[in-house]
Amino acid sequence: MHARAPYTEEVHRLSFGLTLGGILTDAGLGGSEQQQVLAAFREQFNPRRLRAGTEIRIRTRPDRELVERIEVGLNRDSTIFLARGAGGRWNSAVTVLPTTVDTVYASGEITSTLWEAVMTDPVLAAMPRGDRTNFIDRLDRVFQWRVDFTRAIRVGDTYRFAFEREKRPNGSMRSGSLLAAELVNDGKPWYAIWFDPNGDGRGTWYDEEGESVRRAFLMRPIAFSRISSRFTMSRFHPILRTWRAHRGVDYAADAGTPVEVTADGVVARRGWSDTYGRVIDVNHANGFLTRYAHLSDFAGGIGVGTRVTQGQVIGYVGMTGLATGPHLHYEMHRRGNRVDPLSIELPADDPVPADDLDRWLLESEARLALLERLPGAQTLPSVRADE
Ligand SMILES: [Zn+2]
């Protein structure tokens, strides 16, 4: 018996201008063999869709100077394996890390901020920081229209939530969804209950009355941001040094912070103005337009005519145009007039569709009941649906 010669392994990374084909050429795979490898790869994934930074491991048998095996890491969870088979034919397979699904239950009292309460919750303490941030982000996203987390939270407010989580073998969260949540703000309970009317995974959250908790527009285009200047008909302009109207809202944020479009729509402008710097305008239903100014950069794939969906990142905070520091200047127009996005009554999303009321009653009762395993001062409401 003789020992197998060890493999040597080289790790490469795709970068701008360096394709999978280029890496294979560097590894000594010429013409027809390279075509075979790429054909085997294409059975799993389109090589043109590989992103810069993708890791490629190439194993060679030094005794035969032959590439035997290639691994391409598509993302954290999926890897494509390519192996030389009998007769020099290349085969491919994809492996996906197995995940498990469980439900996280948490509840607590807020003594300073929701952020502080969830981050220091002893039940959640063992979880990666990023996962806890994710919980707060989801709570903020579903309750943003009901409770202003930066201004309205009081000491003694409480929260309860049940969160379904898909976990990797190392315990980190791959994906998750908020099933049910309660936030008691100044004695008043607010509910958000997940329901998917069409069963296509694109459901949303409703309150106990079956009304959507969402509005057609997000409350703010940047998560966890601070308002630095409100809509006013008259303020002293720091650069122009005159009193002018400020008919928009400014959000202070670090340069490079992602800016999210506040509602579904179509990009109407992506350009430059001396005042606004890099600016994007988006047209929405019912005569609304939103404007995002002083951007440092536009997100990839955003151009005039691009369809965008609520929460999609369209650009990044900067200080282009007339700006003293990095911030986002956000405007809302309705039928050509600028309106205050913080005080306008935002159109509501649709309630639970009439055809789905039976399933809503059943599923929402079950989801709300998940909160019952948690301590909380409130008696849970019974779910209702108006016919
Ligand atoms: Zn402004």
Give an overview of the whole structure.
The protein is mostly beta strands. The protein has 3 domains: 8-96, Roll (Nuclear Transport Factor 2, Chain: A), CATH 3.10.450; 100-214 and 351-373, Roll (Nuclear Transport Factor 2, Chain: A); 226-339, Glucose Permease (Domain IIA) (Distorted Sandwich). The protein is 14% helix and 37% strand. The chain has helices spanning 20-26, 31-42, 114-119, 129-143, 357-369, and strands spanning 8-13, 55-61, 66-73, 78-84, 90-96, 100-109, 158-167, 173-185, 188-195, 204-206, 226-229, 232-236, 243-246, 249-252, 258-260, 265-273, 277-283, 288-295, 297-298, 307-308, 313-316, 327-334, 337-339. The strands form 5 sheets. Strands 11, 14, 16, 17, 18, 20, 22 and 23 form an 8-stranded antiparallel β-sheet that branches. Strands 1-2-3-4-5 form a 5-stranded antiparallel β-sheet, covered by helices on one side. Strands 6-7-8-9-10 form a 5-stranded antiparallel β-sheet, sandwiched between helices. A hairpin with a 2-residue loop joins β8 and β9 (188-195). The longest helix has 15 residues, at 129-143. The radius of gyration is 26 Å and the shape is globular. It starts with 7 loop residues before the first strand and ends in an 18-residue tail after the last helix. The mean pLDDT is 89. The protein binds zinc ion. Zinc ion (ZN) is lined by residues 229, 246, 248, 250, 329.
